[in-house]
Amino acid sequence: MTILFAPSEGKRPGGDLPPISKEAFCLPELYARRIEALTRYDRFIKTADTAALQKLFGVKKESDLKRWRIDIFQAPTMKAVRRYDGVAYEYLDYDGLSPAAQTYIDDNLVIFSNLFGPVCAKDRLPDYKLKQGESIGDFAPQKFYKAHFSHTLTDYLQSRGPVVDLRAGFYEKFYKIPMPYITMKFLKKGKSVSHWAKAYRGIVLREMAKHGIKSQEDLTAMDIEGLRLIEIKKSKTKEEIVYDIDE
User: Fold this and answer.
1) Cα distance between residue 156 and residue 177, in whole Å
2) What is the tally of structural domains in the chain?
């Protein structure tokens, strides 16, 4: 099973692992393509003016730029799943999981970084900042990764069984799933939610890791506190599990 996940704007600073290398990433055959994108980013942050960097990073204060105006090829790294600290990752609480559950995350989670493209949870990432949907000058990372990574990623996913897509819709710009897959929708009083959708994606992922979920049957049978399965919708290659958030 493979679970697809979004990154977060928020990231933990620092790191205690070595700088990036070919061994730092899954899909190593595409490392040169990653470096192509990262080199564009590295050059841009070293040469762009303050206004351009504020737009790239999505920050307003000039004092905030120093943190990310670094050489990402030399910066220390940490596991991708630890680097991100947004709402979904807060509710996942990776460091609070058992070793077995952490291994499940390491082996089964693919995160769609706005800069690095599809990375596995255990891949090593430096601290970085790239606002969702922002281009690096005239270079659009989402188009680049969709063009150069889709075929290899499809082969990777097809070799690993069921695919569960817990990404936000924006990340279809990086990769559109061509094979059957499972997704989820979270409702409250019959209406879709946004903030709580992020939280419950993290909660669902945490429960999947704790239970070692490997099949669709086990996934739909899983009891998740605060959620009630109300419907499973099927359309073409997508199977959508609809949950109602309990009061």
Assistant:
1) 12
2) 1
Provide the residue type at 145 as one letter: Y
Cβ proximity of 56 and 2 under 8 Å: no
What token pair was written down for 226?
Answer: 């605060």
> What does pTM read for this prediction?
0.95
Q: Which of 2, 6, 3, 4 is CA-nearest to residue 114?
A: 6
DSSP letters along 55-66, please? HHHT---GGGST
Name the 3-class secondary structure at 205.
Answer: helix
Strand, coil or helix: 37: helix
Phi-psi region of 236 (alpha: psi -120 to 50; beta: other; left: phi over 0): left
Host H or E run for residue 7: none
For the cut 80, the answer to whether the pLDDT of residue 194 exceeds it is: no
Q: What would the mean pLDDT of 79-83 be, rounded to a whole number?
A: 98
What domain range includes position 86? Answer: 2-245
What's the burial of 51, exposed, middle or buried (CB within 10 Å: 0-12/13-18/19+)? exposed
Tokens of 63: 């004092």
DSSP class per residue in 126-153: E-----TT--BTTB-HHHHHHHHHHHHH
In sequence order, the β-bridge partners of residue 23 are none
What is the pLDDT confidence band of residue 247, given thresholds at 50, 70 and 90?
A: low
Q: How many CB atoms lie within 10 A of CB 183?
A: 18
Pair 169, 152: CB distance under 8 Å: no
Q: 187 has which bridge partners?
A: 192, 244
* Tokens 């209406």 belong to residue: 191
